[in-house]
Amino acid sequence: MNTDADHLHEDHKTGIMRWITTTNHKDIGTLYLFLSLTMFFVGGAMALIIRAELFQPGLQLVNPDFFNQMTTMHALIMIFGALMPALVGLANWQVPLMIGAPDMALPRLNNWSFWILPFALSMLASTLFFEGGAPAAGWTLYPPLVLQGGDALPYAIFSVHLLGLSSILGAINIIATILNMRAPGMTLMKMPMFVWTWLITAFLLIAVMPVLAGAVTMLLTDRFFGTSFFTASGGGDPVMFQHIFWFFGHPEVYILILPAFGVISTIIPAFSRKKLFGYDSMVYATASIALLSFIVWAHHMFTVGMPLAGEIFFMMTTMLIAVPTGVKVFNWIATMWQGSMTFETPMLFSLAFIVLFTIGGFSGLMMAITPVDFQYHDTYFIVAHFHYVLVPGAIFAVIAAVYFWLPKWTGKMYDETLGKIHFWLTTIFVNITFFPQHFVGLAGMPRRIPDYAVQFTDFNAISTIGSFGFGIAQILFLYILYKTLQQDVTADNKVWEGAEGLEWTLPSPPPYHSFEEPPKVE
Amino acid sequence: MNKKIKTYYLLTAFTVFMFGFSYMLVPIYEVFCEITGLNGKTGSINSASVIEKPVERFVRVQFTSNVINSAPFKFSPGKKEMVVQPGKIYTTFYTLTNKSNETLLATANPSITPGKYAEYFKKIECFCFTHQQINGNETKELAVQFIVDEKLPTEATSLVLAYTMFDITKQLGYKLEK
């Protein structure tokens, strides 16, 4: 260990400059994960403001305009500030370790793509203090509403440009790493599932992030330079924004979930002590989900007045996605079948992922049915749906990944009992928060509304209590992370008995420069 | 060239292409709407539309108007309704009054309902999308000349032409002529 530490000190700067100038994939992964954790709490605090206001009908805490700013900022920060950096952070740590590469392919670009983020997010958050407040048109930024806001719009748009740029650079780096730097003998079809899902996700990112950049640039020129892309008085069409936005937006939701699938496909086999069932079909299923995501976008806008043929097309293609997704879920279950299962914290989060993500998937299928979607559209039912796939879906996968790889990254084992308590609190409260939202949604409560009819009071109160419980449970998570880093107990090289992959052949923590000699893969 | 750098350039080129593609979606959308008649976009005129001996068939065309938001306009069709023969040219007009004392710029958007018949409604002369400068308290007559295509499916017995008038004086990029 001493030699490693000496090596570490002579090799690079110390203190703050180490983190600012670092080109090491492990340092950058850590930076991404810390930023993500911070933003998770910022976005979470905004969610709690929303829930606190909705505890009772009527307006108690905030005015409607600020409420709308909170829904917009909560979504933008959680998607671009918490979830995407978390997934890129996991990729930075794990992809080189899993494919036996010494670092990412383009280390300087890697530094750059991280350090854009804090500036972009600060710029986005600063709009809260502007006259007229932050953008308040929802994360979808639909015109004409978004064009009627205050001075915040250009700042929000430039920050979206920067956030998108960061993701694109990160994605390019990941593709360049995976395609060029695999250890000898590691063919594409021998890559770990997490690497596969990230390869496909990275292609989605560079395909659709520029489209979002284009859409928001059109908003910018409509507002300030007299163009009429979406302004009806100049011959433009606001519905066209929805088409362009969701051409980005639907692949984007798979960008958020595919790496999560990869994490689950890594953890389930480790704690079932079996190989992943149907590896090839997993790869093909992931690829088909990604391809299908480009031809389903208009299911987000069934109510805009599309022709019948269009609605049927988008309904059918959307339902088709259930097939590859089902393949994945059944493969995970088949992996567990007759395995010697144990239930450590990462496994518990992964099991909850499978159950709760599937609930979110099913409510998605309900909304794919065009005629009934007219009832669900823009109600709390959709809020319940996408929170089920993003919170106990994507976020649970990230938490599971942190518990699974934290002992490898730090060389220290987390407290298993506290981890299990964290799991149970999180899982119980996430359901108390989001399950009742299905009911108020079906009963007709609209989303993005600070006040509601009195018959929705009870379920909203339950939902609010659940959300505060969920928030407190995450403070326990912070404490667990802190306690892990403080203790002296070191973890084995192969932390988990059933875990497989190149990362477990390294010491825990791995040396600052790992796999300088590429390992041999059979 | 280094393989990694080559990958980097290829992917960057793809990113730039996709940014361009987002702008390409705009004309694609326009063309798609024109072909399918979505959004009530009216068809373009061609010589085949006017025919020597129109068939003995009559279609009712109704005219409506809207003024967007609180623009100080009075805007109404000259005739509420016409019964027309497909293949013949007809002319009608709308009246626009500026109720304020200031000179304003106005522009109107057309729309045909039902949208699926929009391509059969062909305008020869129309004030849509042109910027109308109108002085304070002035009244203007705006002419529309149109043909209903004889290919209009027989189940269509009535069409509605709606115009929405916008006040665009304050929008950037438009200047009043002094």
| pLDDT averaged residue by residue of chain A | 93
Helix content of chain A: 55-70%
Number of strands of chain A: 0
Please compute the radius of gyration of chain B using only Cα atoms. Answer: 22 Å
**Strand numbers in spatial order across the main sheet of chain B:** 3-1-9-5-7
Structural class of chain A: mainly alpha
Helix count of chain B? 1
Count of runs of 4 or more consecutive helical residues of chain A: 16
Largest sheet, strands/sense/barrel of chain B: 5 strands, mixed
Give structural notes.
The complex is a heterodimer of chains A (about 525) and B (about 180). Chain A has about 525 residues and is an all-alpha fold. Chain A has one domain: Up-down Bundle (Cytochrome C Oxidase, Chain A). Chain A has 16 helices and no strands. In chain A, helix 8 runs antiparallel to helix 12 and helix 8 crosses helix 14 (about 380-410). Chain A is globular and about 65 Å long. Chain A starts with a helix and ends in a 36-residue tail after the last helix. Mean pLDDT of chain A is about 95; it is low at about 1-10. With about 180 residues, chain B is α+β, with helices and mostly antiparallel strands. Chain B has 2 domains: about 1-35; about 40-165, Ctag/Cox11 (Ctag/Cox11 (Pfam 04442), Sandwich). Chain B has 1 helix and 9 strands, in the order αβββββββββ. Chain B has one helix spanning about 5-35, and strands spanning about 60-65, 75, 80-85, 90-100, 105-115, 120-125, 130-135, 140-150, 160-165. In chain B, the strands form 2 sheets. Chain B has a 5-stranded mixed β-sheet with strand order 3-1-9-5-7, with no helix packed on it. In chain B, strands 2-4-8-6 form a 4-stranded antiparallel β-sheet, with no helix packed on it. The longest helix of chain B is centred in the first third of the chain and has 34 residues, at about 5-35. Chain B is flat, with a radius of gyration of 22 Å. The termini of chain B are far apart. The chains are: A mainly alpha (about 525), B alpha+beta (about 180). The interface of A and B includes residues 109 and 233 of A.
